[in-house]
Amino acid sequence: MDFTIFFFALELLVLLAAFRRKFLLHLGYMLDLAIVAACLWRELQGGSKELRLLGYCRGWRVVRLVNTLVEQAQERASRAADREAEAQRRAIEVEADRRRLAEALRLEREARKNTETMLLGYKEEAETLREALNIAAMDIAEAAASDLEGDGSDGSASDESSPMHEDKRRGTASKADRLGDDRGDRIFVSEDGSWTSR
To answer: Signal peptide location in the record (predicted)?
Structure first.
């Protein structure tokens, strides 16, 4: 018996055991089975030269092998193209996320800058108001001091014509005015705008 026929028969048995029903449904395996069976029958029967030519039909297996290799290469190329398309899609998503985050960061910086500008304006406004209050407190203190000094003078007509003396004559002076006159209080204004009466 020819060793190659035995080898092909063994190969077909292994394929049949591995693929079972799929083996019988595959056209290529069935053609192999027919060729190997005809060659095996020729060897056993001592057949003619025509059956010996069937041995050359096994050369189609090389064509099938090449075809299988081409199909595998095409499948790998298809999978690689799919992976590349997926990578491009992910890259587009990442770029979109990066742009969105960059825009959010820009808006956040603008909001922070606007907030800092607004706070700086409030700070300057508060300092201006504090200075105005200090000036007003000093003016009030000077006016109160001059009124207190005027009350302690010799009682000239010009002093008595002041609003505070008018109120005293009418008996409508405030309690603070009366207390200030009775005790001889003076108002002192500090640098921070606070004031004390002594």
So the answer is: none
Say which amino acid occupies 2.
D
Instruction: Evaluate if residue 77 carries a pLDDT over 60.
Output: yes
Scored b (16 or more CB within 10 A) or e, 29-58 reads beebbebbebbbebbeeeeeeeeeebbeeb
Q: Residue 193 in 3-state DSSP?
A: coil
For the segment 83-135, what is each residue's pLDDT rounded down to a tens digit? 999 999 999 999 999 999 999 999 999 999 999 999 999 999 999 999 999 99
Statement: the pTM of the whole predicted model exceeds 0.70: no
- Token pair recorded at residue 153: 């003078």
Contact status, residue 177 vs residue 167, Cβ threshold 8 Å: yes
Task: Using DSSP bridges, classify how beta strands 187-189 and 195-197 pair: parallel, antiparallel or unpaired.
Answer: antiparallel
Report residue 2: phi and psi, to 5°: -70, 130
